[in-house]
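Rotation project, supervised by the postdoc (A.L.). Task for the rotation student: set up a whole-complex structure prediction and record inputs and outputs verbatim in this book. Inputs entered:
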Amino acid sequence: MSGGAVVATELEQLDIRQHSPKGGGSTEAKAVGTSRWTPYALLTPGFLWLAIFFVVPTIVLFFTSLYVGSLDQGYSFSFPGEWSTYVTAIQQYWPQFVRSFVFAGLATVFCLLLAYPLAYFIAFRSGRWKAAMLVLVIAPFFTSFLIRTLAWRTILADDSIVVRTMNTLHITDVLNALGLTEPGRVLNTPLAVVLGLTYNFLPFMVLPLYASLDRMDPRLVEAAQDLYSTPWTAFRKVTWRLSMPGVVAGTLLTFIPAAGDYINAELLGTPKVSMIGNVIQDQFFVVTDYPTASALSVMLMAVIVVMVMVYVRKAGTEELV
Amino acid sequence: MSTTPRGADLRIVNITKRFGDFVAVDDLTLTIPSGSFFALLGPSGCGKTTTLRMVAGLEEPTAGAILIGDEDVTWNKPYKRPVNTVFQSYALFPHLDIYENVAFGLKRQGKKDIASQVDAMLELTELTGLARRKPQQLSGGQQQRVALARALINEPQVLLLDEPLGALDLKLRRQMQLELKRIQTEVGLTFVHVTHDQEEAMTMADTIAVMNAGRVEQMGAPTDLYENPMTTFVANFLGQSNFFDGEIVERAGGYAVVDVRGQRVGVPESRVHSAGSSVHVGVRPEKLRIQFLDDAQVADGENRLEATITDSSFIGVSTQYLVDTVWGQELTVFSQNIARDARLANGARVLLTWAPDHTFALDAAQDVDAGVEIDEDAVAPDPVGAAS
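Outputs recorded:
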C-alpha cells in the first residue's frame, strides 16, 4: 500500500506543527553521554526502511509508467518515455477517479459524523468503561478485513431485515432519488460501497479523535459556559477547535486509504461503480498493462498528496494546539 | 457592606447536594452581602467547591434555592447567570491568545467596544503587552491574572474564585493575595473565595465561613474566628490551639472559672461555648508567655501553668517550644524572639502565663482533634504564619 507511507509522512508534518510552539528541542540541554551522532543513528533504521520500501518503489513505479512497448513485445524504458499513457489513462478512467474521491469523501464525512459523538462519549462520559469501549472500537480488527466486508453482503442483501425495513419506510426511495441506490436494493450500489468504506475505516477516525478529546480539560467547556456560551457555542468555540488535530488526522487516515481502496467496490459494488483501485488492480493483474496501471497509481498518489497539502494548510490556519 | 456596592447580595437558602448516598452540602444557608470579600474555608471534601459550583450553575442542587439580588437563579443555566468564575488551575483556552481569552465573555454577550474594555482590564491586571501571547507562554502568576481578567471583565454581580492561588508558590501567593484584595476594593464587586488555606482566607476576606462536612461551623470576621472560635474544628483549622480538659466551677464578673486539674483558669463568658460544664479550655500557642520557673513574674489575675520544656526550635522571628504539663500533656508555645532567656533549654522548668481574655472554652463533647491537619494538601503548619 503506497498510500500508507504518504499518510505517515503527512502525519509527521502534522505532529511537528502541533508541538513546535513548545520549542523544537534542538536548543535544549543535551543529555549526558549522548554524542551528536546519536539522533542520526536512531533515525537510520527508519530512513533505510523508507528508502528501500517507499522511495525506491515509487521511483520504479514512476519509470514503469513511462515504459514503451506492449505485453507481447516486452516493455522497456527509453528517454523521454511514453507520456501519452497518462493522457489515454485519464481519458479512459476519469470517471473512476472522480468516483473514488466522491466515495472516499462521503465515507470520510460519514465516519466523522459517526466517530465524533462516539469519541466524545468515550473521552468524557464513559467513566470506568473507557478501556473496554476502546477495545471494542478496535475489536473488528481481530477479524479479517475480507470477512468483515463479506459480512456486509449479508447485511445489505435484498431480503435482509435492513433493506426490507428501508423499503417499508421508503428510505430507499429517497436514496434512489439521490442516485445512491437502485430501486428496492442496496447491495451492488454506490451506497453499499460507501457504507463498506465507512465501516472499515471508522476506527481510524475514532482513535485520533478520541486521543485529541481525551487530552482536553473538560473544565474548559465549563469555563466557556460560565462565560456566557450556550452548550452549542461552547462546542464550536472550544471543543471543536481543540479537537482539530484529531479531526485532521482522522480524516486523512480515512480519506487516503479509502480513495485507493478496491476491496469494498469489488465485494459490495459492481463494475458499474468501480473505483480507481479496481482499475489499477485490473490493469496490473488481469490486463497486465503495467504502464497504464503505474500511470494510474502515480496520478492517484499525486492527486492525494496535493489534496492533503491543501487540506492540511487550510486546517493549519486554525492554529492547531 | 461596601459604600458603593456594584455587586448583589448572594443568598444561599437551605441548599443540599447529594451525590448518591454522600451528602456534599447539608442544608446550607448563607447570606453574602454585596461588595464583600467572602471566603468559604474548609478542608477538601467539606463541600465548599460544590457550593461554589452550584452558585455558578455547574452543579444542580438536590434541594434549596440560590438568589442573586432578588432573582432566583437556582435553575438557571450557567450562561444565564450574572456570575463568573476564576477556576482552579485557571482553565484558560489554550487555542486562544490572552486578548481572545479575556474578550471571550464579552463576545458571547455581543457587547460593543470590546477592544477598549479588554485593554483597560489588561491594564488593571498588569498584563499589558502580553495580549498576543498564548496562555502556555505565561508564568503561573500571569496565567492567574488572565483567569481573573477573563472573569472580571464581564462585571459579574458575584465573582467566584475556586482555590485561585493554589497552583502558585508561596511567595507569589502572598503577593497575589494582596493584589486580589486591591482589585476587589477597586472594582467593588462581591467576591466569593473558596480555599483550604486559612492564611489566604484571613489575609483577603472580610468575612469567612468555615465549612466542615457540608455545613458551616462558624462564620465571621477573621479576627473573631481566630480569637473566639466556637468549635474545636474552627480552633484547630484556623491556626493551632492548646486544649486542657476542665470543669466550670464558678461564674462571676463576666468570667467563668474552670478547674483544670486543681488549677483555676479564667475564661471570659463571651468565649464560653458549651452547653454543659465540662469544657475543653483552649489557648493559642502565641498567647502563652514562657518564663523560667524560679523567677517568673505573674501579673494579677493571669492564668498560669507549670511545665517542662521537651523541645525547642528556633525559627527566626520566633521560637517554638514543646512543653509537658505536670500531668504529661504536650503543649505548643510560640515565643517572639525579643529577649531570649538562655535558661529556656530542654528540661527547664517553666511557668506559662496568659491573659484570661485570650482563653476560650468549648463543649467537651467535641473531638478535641477535629480539624487538625485534616488536609494533606495544606501547607505544613507554619508557626510564623499562624502567629501573625
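Student's summary: The mean pLDDT of chain A is 86.
Supervisor addendum: Chain A touches chain B through 21 residues (CB under 8 Å).
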